[in-house]
Design goal:
The protein has about 750 residues and is of the alpha+beta class. It contains 24 helices and 32 strands. Among the domains are: about 160 residues, no CATH class; about 70 residues, no CATH class; about 210 residues, Mur-like, catalytic domain (UDP-N-acetylmuramoyl-L-alanine:D-glutamate ligase).
């Protein structure tokens, strides 16, 4: 067929929270496939062959068929360009190292060629770029033109490195997610919040908000660290700080050869030279160390292997050791060539954090050059057949030895972390045998590091990975702590603003410090801190980052769910009040009651199994949402009738009714009058529109939260809206509620 014009992206939306597609963030793209609507995949010659050649991993996509090869089957039978784009975007992200499995494609109602395509977005920038590359790849496959798949994947991988969480931070966030502890990425870097409100903790790589700045400062000063460790009887190597090469040689003679030279404030082994015996080697090593730090230290050389032990919460949780790197000559290759042939070909070695071992770049590592010089060699030296050269004495510390650590060694490193004051520490020690006490082999702790890297324990070059992210999360959130605060989400439009304010007031009376974001503004307890409309994702996220609040109430519109998603991952109470605002959803191609139902059900989908959905029993579509809730359902009703309400009460469910202008609580056939509306202070002053609905919602939510009934009654009696309120829900009737 003739070349078809490019498919068009009409709208690209990053849904940052739970949404109509899934609990997780997605990129939703409105894709107009134009005349391709008349050409499913089985009518596009060569498309199948080109796609499966460029992206052979598509065979792993189950698609709706539910088994391996499912998408390939759909491709052969005939499917449309929007659906094909979905799977291309998923596969491109997978190839870039960002594992993605979720995607959905739905045709927009009433539009001939428009599709909504949603794909899981672990990172917004990467997923956006994957969509653009996916469009280019798909059109190239359709039109039989060239496309550089390798370059697209390379660019996406670079974006993953630049924008995605680093492996240390990511493993902690993943461990928190496994425990259902929520997280918020606070910057484009590795600063992440775990938990909400007054339960939150912050991490930055492997540092936490419990990591003392003083302790971190001590750890960065190697000489001070050694003094403190020695004062507590922890074995350390003797050493002293020097300022010139001559001083380094003098200190080495005083300490006793061989020695080690290293910078006092560098990390990751940079500038460290080991087993130095001659004045020339020591003076050369001084310059290497001085280039990496502010001061240079000379220490007694300890024979053995370098080890890194990770301490979390003053307990040793993982250990790794280094290993020597050697090359063996063949009579023709230089040392430089042998390093590339015998060391850098190891698939475990690379230049990114995805690899447990670093590639050895001889031109960038003066320590390697010095090691060769001490053996009478240069990078261009040709080794005789069978002649060996030592390239690195320890290399990367990446061989897991956690199960071999002697209990006394584990106790020593735990004490070292405690002495310095670090809740998470990487302790470097040298020992010939980690399964023996340090004292009997003259082993010693040589460094204490704040914010240690975790990759060596997550992806060791040898041995088994260790769940260090889980250890850190358990340290921050001991058993029984969830990182959550009570959250109430109120979705709808009639009376929801006043309902949200009333719920916040009742929660505050129960002893909680409550944050509220609604159309009337943002409130901290009874104090309004913003007057703008705060029923939006941005304002709600700000509240969740506020350490002073112990509970939160959020008013949500259907448009927010469609444009941003919910600001929280789960909630204690999810309210769906009405579908009266359905017209505002029409621009999103949400036009029928069933489609509106699918939007507002998001509020119920996120209710915790320990929580409750509060639903309007007078609207059958809303009452049906009870089947979706993982927790309890509490219904409210003005009419006190209807099949759903009757059946709910018959089964012992709770409901809040309005009978003769009196709020009634009912459960298991027993009814209790709570309060007459005429007794409420706000009604005496003049009730806002839909005030009765607001009261029913608030009572149901407070009851579901376990707030004492007498306290609910007192809160209702004394509740008054501020005269400054100007939202639609605050328009006052001249008469009281009928």
């Amino acid at each position: 067929m003739d070349n078809k014009r490019d498919i068009e992206f009409r709208r690209i939306t990053y849904l940052r929270g739970p949404n109509i597609w899934t609990y997780r963030p997605v990129i939703e793209v409105w894709v107009d496939i134009g005349e391709l609507e008349e050409y499913p995949s089985n009518k596009l010659p060569g498309l199948y062959e080109r796609l499966t050649t460029w992206l052979p991993g598509l065979i792993e996509h189950h698609c709706g068929v539910g088994e391996r090869g499912g998408f390939i089957q759909r491709l052969q039978e005939g499917t449309w360009a929007g659906h094909i784009l979905e799977h291309i975007v998923i596969e491109l992200q997978n190839l870039a190292g960002m594992q993605t499995g979720f995607g959905q494609t739905r045709q927009a109602p009433g539009e001939h060629s428009l599709y909504k395509v949603a794909v899981r977005a672990r990172n917004e920038q990467v997923c956006r770029a994957a969509f653009e590359y996916g469009r280019q790849l798909l059109m190239a496959a359709i039109n039989d033109t060239s496309f550089d798949v390798a370059n697209a994947i390379y660019v996406l991988r670079e974006m993953v490195d630049d924008h995605h969480l680093g492996p240390s931070t990511a493993c902690i966030v993943d461990a928190a997610t496994a425990r259902r502890i929520p997280s918020i990425r606070l910057t484009s870097g590795n600063l992440v919040q775990l938990g909400y409100g007054n339960t939150l903790r912050r991490i930055w790589t492997a540092e936490t908000d419990r990591t003392s700045a003083i302790a971190e400062g001590i750890a960065s000063d190697k000489d001070l660290t050694k003094q403190l460790l020695a004062s507590c009887g922890i074995p350390i190597p003797e050493g002293q700080i020097v300022t010139t090469p001559d001083e380094a040689w003098e200190a080495a003679q005083d300490i006793g050869l061989p020695v080690v030279l290293k910078p006092t404030d560098a990390n990751h082994g940079r500038g460290v030279s080991l087993d130095l015996n001659t004045q020339a080697d020591i003076e050369a090593a001084f310059h290497i160390a001085a280039a990496e730090g502010s001061d240079v230290m000379v220490e007694r050389f300890i024979r053995g292997t370098e080890h890194r032990l990770l301490v979390v919460g003053y307990k040793m949780v993982a250990a790794a050791k280094g290993e020597e790197a050697w090359v063996s000559g063949n009579g023709t290759a230089t040392v430089r060539e042998l390093i590339d042939q015998q060391i850098n070909t190891d698939p475990r070695r690379g230049l990114t954090e995805d690899f447990p071992l670093n590639r050895i770049l001889i031109d960038e590592d003066q320590a390697v050059v010095l090691e060769l010089t001490r053996q009478g060699m240069r990078p261009e030296t040709v080794l005789a057949d069978g002649q060996r050269a030592l390239i690195q004495r320890n290399g990367n510390v990446a061989i897991d030895v956690t199960d071999e650590v002697h209990p006394e060694v584990a106790e020593a490193v735990s004490l070292a972390a405690r002495v310095i004051g670090l809740d998470i520490a990487g302790i470097d020690l040298v020992a010939e045998d980690i399964s023996r006490p340090l004292e009997e082999q003259r082993g010693a702790i040589v460094e204490v590091n704040a914010g240690p890297g975790l990759l060596m324990h997550l992806k060791p070059a040898g041995g088994k990975p260790r769940p260090v992210g889980q250890a850190i999360v358990n340290h921050l959130f001991p058993e029984g702590e969830s990182g959550r605060i009570p959250i109430v989400g109120v979705a709808g439009s009639l009376g929801t603003t006043v309902a949200a304010r009333l719920i916040a007031r009742l929660m505050n009376l129960s002893g909680l410090h409550v944050g509220l974001a609604c159309r009337d503004g943002m409130f901290l307890d009874r104090r309004r801190v913003e007057k703008n409309d705060c029923a939006n994702w941005t304002a709600q996220q700000r509240l969740l980052m506020n350490r002073s609040i112990g509970a939160a109430v959020f008013e949500n519109r259907g448009t927010q769910i469609l444009s941003d998603g919910l600001a929280y991952d789960r909630c204690q109470i999810g309210v769906v009040a009405d579908m009266a605002d359905a017209e505002s959803l029409h621009p999103y191609y949400i036009q029928t009651p069933e489609q509106c139902y699918n939007v507002l059900r998001t509020q119920v989908d996120v209710v915790l199994d320990s929580g409750a959905a509060v639903l309007n029993a007078d609207e059958p579509q809303i009452a049906k949402m009870a089947d979706l809730c993982d927790g309890e359902t509490v219904l409210f009703s003005h009419l006190g009738e209807g099949e759903a309400l009757v059946e709910h009460c018959r089964q012992g469910g709770r409901a809040v009714l309005l009978r003769n202008d009196t709020v009634v609580l009912t459960q298991g056939g027993q009814e209790d009058e709570l309060i007459a509306l005429a007794k409420l202070a706000q009604v005496k002053k003049g009730a806002p529109e839909h005030f009765a609905t607001s009261v029913l919602i608030a009572v149901a939510a407070a009851w579901a939260l376990g707030i004492d009934v007498d306290l609910i009654r007192a809160g209702l009696e004394t509740f008054e809206l501020s005269q400054a309120v100007s939202s639609p829900d605050a328009r006052l009737y001249k008469q009281t509620v009928r």
